[in-house]
Write a structure and sequence with these properties.
259 residues, alpha+beta, 60s Ribosomal Protein L30, Chain: A, seven-stranded mixed sheet, six-stranded antiparallel sheet, 15 strands, disordered N terminus
Length: 259
């Protein structure tokens, strides 16, 4: 009887472990620290890839936009190119997970970014939850941005974003890598949707500003466990994270036209 009970407990523990892995996300840094100009971290790309095969973020000095997909970290640079990031490159802010979607949505109706977000809000069961989202689609139009590497003393991200490079692509295919965070995540993550783009040929990418989709399939993974790691450096420690930066964040994240 005792051996059967122990066996049952071990099986149950194994089941819980697998389930926990499938709903877990890792985050390094906070969005408010990034907004304040804390543009350096000590987490490497190699270390981040151990945390998951799917994610978004940026690189030290805001040197481009990060798109982590299928276990490879890409960098969409301010000159319009996309390269594979080196394993020793570091990040001040990133979110990653092992992507195992449980919700699939296929649509053939054209939509803008705003309409896409409204559709997803209707489909999601819990708007107070976190979600990892991967979209494969055909884009009639998509605008992305990337920021060139910065030098000390760092300005705020809102100031730096004024010099961003914007790229407009048409009639292209690719995917969106995103996270949706609830309103209470304000301060440590981006409330709402945070979208990055990577084209099918891996030559185009960046932080998404606007788009028009023609047809697409969305895969969604609910997240219930967020592991937050705080950078251990002076930039993060001295960043002013007491200010309400909601207006700055809206300016930096959206700047959308034609929605």
């Amino acid at each position: 009887m005792l051996s059967r009970l122990l066996c049952s407990l071990l099986l149950l523990a194994g089941t819980v472990s697998v389930h926990a892995e499938s709903i877990h996300a890792f985050q390094y840094g906070t969005i408010d620290a990034l907004l304040a100009g804390a543009f350096e971290g000590d987490l490497t790309v190699k270390e981040l890839e151990y945390k998951g095969d799917f994610g978004i973020g940026t690189y030290n000095r805001i040197d481009g936009e990060m798109i982590l997909v299928d276990g490879v970290a890409y960098k969409a640079k301010s000159d319009g190119t996309v390269v594979v990031a080196g394993p020793s490159e570091q990040t001040p802010f990133a979110v990653a997970t092992t992507f195992k979607p449980t919700i699939i949505i296929t649509e053939n109706t054209p939509c803008t970014l705003k309409e896409l977000e409204q559709l997803l809000d209707v489909k999601l069961a819990n708007l107070n939850g976190f979600y990892a989202i991967r979209l494969h689609g055909k884009f009639k139009q998509i605008s992305t941005r990337a920021i060139s590497p910065q030098d000390k003393p760092y300005k705020t991200l809102a100031e730096v974003a004024k010099t961003q490079s914007v790229f407009n692509f048409s009639d292209t295919s690719g995917e969106l890598i995103a996270f949706r965070s609830p309103p209470f995540s304000k301060g440590f993550n981006v409330p709402g949707y945070h979208w990055h783009f990577l084209s099918t040929d891996k030559k185009q990418g960046g932080h998404v500003l606007s788009l028009t989709l023609e047809n697409y399939t969305v895969s969604i993974m609910p997240l219930f466990d967020i592991d937050l790691k705080i950078p251990n450096n002076a930039l993060f420690a001295n960043s002013n994270q007491t200010i309400d930066r909601a207006v700055e964040l809206k300016t930096v994240e959206s700047a959308r036209k034609g929605d």
